[in-house]
Here is the input.
Amino acid sequence: MPGRTRVHRLLPALPSSGVPTTVSRQLSEAIHLGLLAPGEQLPSENDLASQLGVSTASLREALSVLREQGLVETRRGRRGGTFVCGPSETSAARLHRNLHQRSAIGLRDFGDEWSAVAGTSARLAAARASSAHLENLDRLVEQLAAASAVGDRGRAHSRFFIEVALASQSERLTRAEVRLQAETGELLWLQCDEPFSVSESVERLTRLTAAIRNEDAAVARDLAEAHVLRATRWLVQTRIAAPEEST
Here is the structure.
């Protein structure tokens, strides 16, 4: 997993008013995407509030919400602090409900933006990725292949594309990728509930990692865009084919 400093740099600074709900949502998204790992200790309240550009009071209110949701716990004493508990297991039924709330046109728009971000990130990563980035990409592909639960598969898939953006060494692209994964990427986890689809994804992401390692920018971009196109097409077709929920 990424180091603490790098993770919190992905969370944008917030305005000074009305922010507890936004802070709790951002941290919740980071936990569900696996950017904050179970057992990881958050920075002190003063440090984290400073990183996010909010007041300590707003941060404390946000952490209270996360504690109620079971996403973090606060321990007292010399080795105390706030620790990530991790997300509960992802429910396919919940993901299907979320899918019903999206339109096919909106999903296509998501795919258009994701393709632009992922393709550009992959192209730049081929020129800028460090050995540590490449090791992380290999590890995430292995996690995707080995995971048995839909949530674990989905987090590995989302984290892979966030790691590609990190490898591009573009803070704007990385923030955009995190936002896209938090906004709609979770719906693609439904596809991760199909073993055949997972094996195909593992093969495609392995080839993408190889292109980045070989510093082949054009191939890396094309492979990233092709994966996004395929995933988005599956998502749109699933939404269109799904029966409408009764009112």
About this structure: The chain is about 65% helix and 5% strand. The beta strands are 72-75, 81-84.
